[in-house]
Amino acid sequence: MRVQIIVAMAVTAMSLAPVGSAAEPAKGFDLTALDKTVDPCNDFFQYACGGWMKANPIPGDQSAWGRWDELIQANNLVLRGILEKASAPSATRTPVDQKIGDYYAACMDEKGLDAKGKAPLEPELARIAALKTKAELPELIGRQHVVGLGSLFSFSADQDFKDATQVIAIADQGGLGLPDRDYYLKDDAKSVELRQKYVAHVQAMLERAGDTPAVAAAGAKTVMTIETALAKASLDLVSRREPLNIYHKQTLAELQKPTPSFAWDKYLSAVGAPPVAALNVATPDFFKGLEAQLAKTSLDDWKTYLRWQVVHGASPYLASTFVLANFDFYGKTLQGQAEMRPRWKRCVQYTDDDLGEALGRVFVEKTFGADGKERMARMVLALRKGLDKDIRELAWMSEVTRRKALAKLEAVATKIGAPDKYRDYATLEIKRDDLLGNGFRGNAFEWKRQLAKIGRPVDRAEWQMTPPTVNAYYNPLLNDINFPVGILQPPFFDRTADDASNFGAIGAVIGHELSHGFDDQGRQFAANGNLEDWWTDADGKEFEKRAECFVDQYSGYTAVGDVKLNGQLVLGENVADNGGLRIALYAFQDTLAGKPATPVAGFTPEQRFFIGFGQSWCETRRDEYSRMLAQVDVHSPGRFRTNGTVANMPEFAKAFGCKAGAPMARAEKACRVW
Fold it and tell me: In this predicted structure, what is the pLDDT of residue 53?
């Protein structure tokens, strides 16, 4: 079960990729993926990916399909093999094998889950039914948060923005069943229709939990009323991208004052928090809105909302009737999936969610060698050198800011592959016949681990992704870049391929993460991870002017139908894409120094570099999924991550002989920060 601890400002990762499901990924530079009927200067994404898209329709159980998903699928097949072996009872199983194997076995037992029906829900529903007054809500909400149910708000632990050496508690907005606040507030026809379908879904789930149709229908309306009020009090996603908007350090007494109806001492006791001297109240206005709802909403209505939270959070781990109803709305309606993922894929995901470093340890042993880590480390050094060169040569940056930028780059730490020390799950009880209980206990284990950090120095060695994850991230508070084993495989990182495709694919990923340290968010954090302004006023204004060029460029792209991209929402990722590819090219060209520019299959090294980059973003999406991501995802679609980036690079136009004015040669309109 996915943990509901939500940090106020998430680490900046590469992509939002659904769990994969089809063929083995191809090697790096793939000639069959090309569509040579298209001029690369007109639409490079179609040129690089047209052949691949034609040969790779979206599988029925997916909302999108891309090169990332191919690799996720390949990793999942490895994980499936590990879990099937570990799930076979044996006297020789290690403690790690027992936990991951029994978790997977409990998940795969669909017949047993169907026989239990809604019985696993009953203890949680009974706790809600036993509530006598609203004064008891803090303890019940605390219980729900510990086991992973996201009622009312979120609570977590993370580094202090102004003192990144220390970990503090964070209270933040939450409590919604739809992907974002705007789903409740927009009045266009599609939003209204989606809300109607959501209310129908809530009713269907409450009926499965035992309510009569009439009671469930009334309850669904109550849930929508409460969640709409929470949405109105929530901060929008674009505003949340400004770090100062989500940093408000307060004492517990200062948080308690505007929320007299919620006893924070009872909540903190219920969640097992250590003494909290101060915390980051990320969104103060949200808690003022929450207080208004606590005061005016009846206990019976709160019970209905809390019952929904239980059913909603637990449904993937219950009988088929719950699983199918949950998929019908969140899979079909929201994301356009035609069919549900096979159970084994879901069970691999859930095991990774709760036992990621136990499962990941075995995965690393099977997939990653010392030579791969060594070559990746060399590439990271080459990319750091490329960004160093870029910063030193920037004409628009003053020497005062330049020195601090170089010092920050020098301080960036790198983690490759997997943790040096894996997490110990010895205290986490896993039962072979209790899937929901395993999920609840898994969340409680992680909750306790996270809250134990409060008031302590930060652990700089910790990873925030599991080893099999196909992704990478930059953490501004740690000032580090992180590359799990999961992504360090073809088509992104191919130990057998030449430098051209590797620098275009994984090199651009490395450059992307390094550039996040200097995007519109990352640039506000210093070398030590503290939130502080280290820019001169003139340099800060110049950055903002250059960043606004990206906002305008990407706001002009259509996500689907009548929906445009939100240039402000995707700004940081676009700055990182554009900066990352440029410094990857610098690093690649440095490796070519003094070597003959040998063509391969008729393509120059620079052309192969750009094709490697473009083919890393090959993907197609269902319209429903595109519409959803346009509202909530900070990343642009693969087509615009490709075309939008190369169109800003004169080096691309030179490599492919693009004439001035071609769509992929923006020339005078080109945007650039790094």
Answer: 98
CA atoms within 13 A on the CB side of 256: 13
My answer on whether 288 and 195 are in the same domain is yes
Contact 50, 38 (CB under 8 A): yes
Let me know how long the chain is: 674
Q: Both 478 and 604 in a single domain? A: yes
DSSP code of 143? H
Q: How many CB atoms lie within 10 A of CB 383?
A: 29
Q: Could you say which DSSP state residue 136 is in? A: G
Over its C-alpha atoms, the chain yields an Rg (Å, rounded) of 25
3-class secondary-structure state, position 157: strand
Q: Is 38 exposed, middle or buried (0-12, 13-18, 19+ CB in 10 A)?
A: middle
| Residue 202 resides in a domain | yes
Please report, as a single letter, which amino acid is at residue 199: V
The closest of 639, 642, 619 to 56, measured between CA atoms, is: 619
**546: part of which helix (H) or strand (E)?**
helix 537-555
* DSSP E strand stretches across 431-491: 473-475, 480-484
For residue 601, what are the contacts with CB-CB under 8 A and spacing of at least 6?
A: 31
The continuous run of DSSP H or E covering 280 comes out as strand 278-281
Q: Which of 300, 317, 334 lies at the terminal end of a domain, its last residue?
A: 317
Cα distances from 353 to residues 2, 30, 349, 438, in angstroms, run: 6, 32, 6, 11
Structural domain tally of the chain?
Answer: 2
| 152 plus 44 within the same structural domain | no
- Quick one: CA dihedral 232, 237, 242, 246, positive or negative? positive
Alpha-carbon span 473 to 480, nearest angstrom:
8
Beta strands 473-475 and 163-173, pairing class: unpaired
Lookup: tokens for 574: 């676009």
Same structural domain, 527 and 629: yes
472-507 per-position pLDDT tens digit: 999 999 999 999 999 998 888 887 778 899 999 999
Same domain, 405 and 507: yes
Best CA proximity match to 152, nearest among 161, 167, 142: 142
- Residues 392-396: contacts with CB under 8 Å, at least 24 apart: 394/674, 396/539, 396/542, 396/546
Q: What are the C-alpha distances in Å from 379 to residues 183, 491, 498?
A: 42, 16, 12
**Catalytic residue (choose from 353, 513, 520, 542):** 513
Biggest alpha carbon–alpha carbon distance for the chain: 80
**Structural domain of 177:** 118-317
Show the tokens assigned to 352: 């990774």
If you count DSSP H runs as helices and E runs as strands, how many of each does the chain have, helices first? 28, 12
Evaluate whether residue 271 is within a structural domain: yes
CATH number of the domain residue 198 falls in: 1.10.1380.10
- Within a domain: 596: yes
Higher pLDDT, 601 or 371: 601
Confidence band of 28 (pLDDT split at 50, 70, 90): low
List residues bridging with 457 in a β-sheet: 166
- Kindly state whether residues 148 and 274 are assigned to the same domain: yes
Q: Phi/psi at 236 (nearest 5 deg)?
A: -70, 160
- Hey, how many other C-beta atoms are within 10 angstroms of the C-beta on 232? 15
* 436: alpha, beta or left? (left if phi > 0; alpha if psi -120 to 50): alpha
Q: Mapping DSSP to helix (H, G, I), strand (E, B) and coil, where does residue 630 land? A: helix
Identified catalytic residue from 69, 577, 606, 619 = 577
Annotated catalytic, 124?
Answer: no
Q: Are residues 481 and 626 in the same domain?
A: yes
Q: In the structure encoding, which two tokens stand for residue 500, read together?
A: 């051209």
* Residue 92 belongs to a domain: no
pTM of the complete model:
0.93
Residue 23 in this model has a pLDDT that exceeds 60: no
Active site residue 513: yes
Going by C-beta distance under 8 Å and a sequence separation of 6 or more, which residues neighbour residue 151? 141, 144, 145, 174, 175, 305, 306, 309
Q: Please name the amino acid found at residue 629.
A: L
